Amino acid sequence: MNTADPVDDEASEHPKQRVFRHVRYRMSRSEKFIAVMLFIGVIVLVLIPFTFIVIPAGHVGVLYRLLRHGTETRFVYHEGLGIKWPFDRIYTYEVRTKTLDESVHALAQVGLSVQVQVSVLYHPVPDNAGKLHQEIGYDYVERVVRPISLGAVRDIVGKSDPHDLYRINVEELESRILAKMHRSPAAAGLIFFERVVVRDIVLPTAVNDSINRKLTEEQNAQTYKFLIAQAQDEAERKRIEAIGIQTFYSIVANSLTPQLLTWRGIEATVQLSNSSNSKIVVVGGGKDQLPLILGSDIAKQPDLPAPAVVDPQSHQLPPWRELPKLFPKAGGEGGSGSESRGGSIGPGNDRSSSQAASQGTKKP
In which residue ranges is the amino acid composition biased (Polar residues) (predicted)? Predict the structure, then answer.
């Protein structure tokens, strides 16, 4: 039986074979581990974008499970870092307030075309983003928001008259449109409409011109009413002034004696002669030589006793509040007290006012 000596076998091996055997031994222990780790690291780097997700600010993430029941509607990913399986997918939705500008052509009650420019402020409900993605999808603006906005505006405008649209409060119109949008079942719980802003309402040219003419005539009518009221107040003022003048002359008439008139004529002549302007002084031909403007019979008047001192209590003005009004106001304002007794304009009222004035100026 022949047995080979191991030493002789190693000595008989080729040198390259011995090097290859030693190299293969070292890879099986150290480099194999390094190779495995490098392979795992490459796989992890490749799977990181598919496993870790970043939700931006103002967004939520909707998870779609490929191997299970599909879209997840029970929860959403909020802002920050999230983890998922590589074979699942995340759909992000912006939940910030958005604006939709629309120009709506609607028909009013009488069939006239009205153009309304509106801006709709809305945002998806964050907690229901999964349901929004499952039922409507990314293009929810075109599928839901725009049709609901157009329908609400046309419905509210169609129930209004063009003249009402011209005079209606903008806030009231906006609240009616917004309430109509909130009642829409298509967006219930999925999209929240914050506000509707009516930027402009354009009526037909003929209607706009007729409304402007109507408003202008109404302003003119208000102007005439003001002028009439002003004229009535002026008439009352002149009436009071006339009563005052009548009272004044009734008091002065008791003091107009020939001696006083002669003295006033002398004063007028002196003042006329002292004037620096050119003048011609014509003096009467009587014994008193008074100016002709005073007449020639003043000096011939009989001598009268000096007038008594005027008693202020005997020359009181009439009570203004008890005088009947020349222009009594209709309704409750002019129908109370003494104004109701002077409700008509005519000679009777003039006589009553004259009697009241004469009673106020009559001496006891």
Answer: 350-364
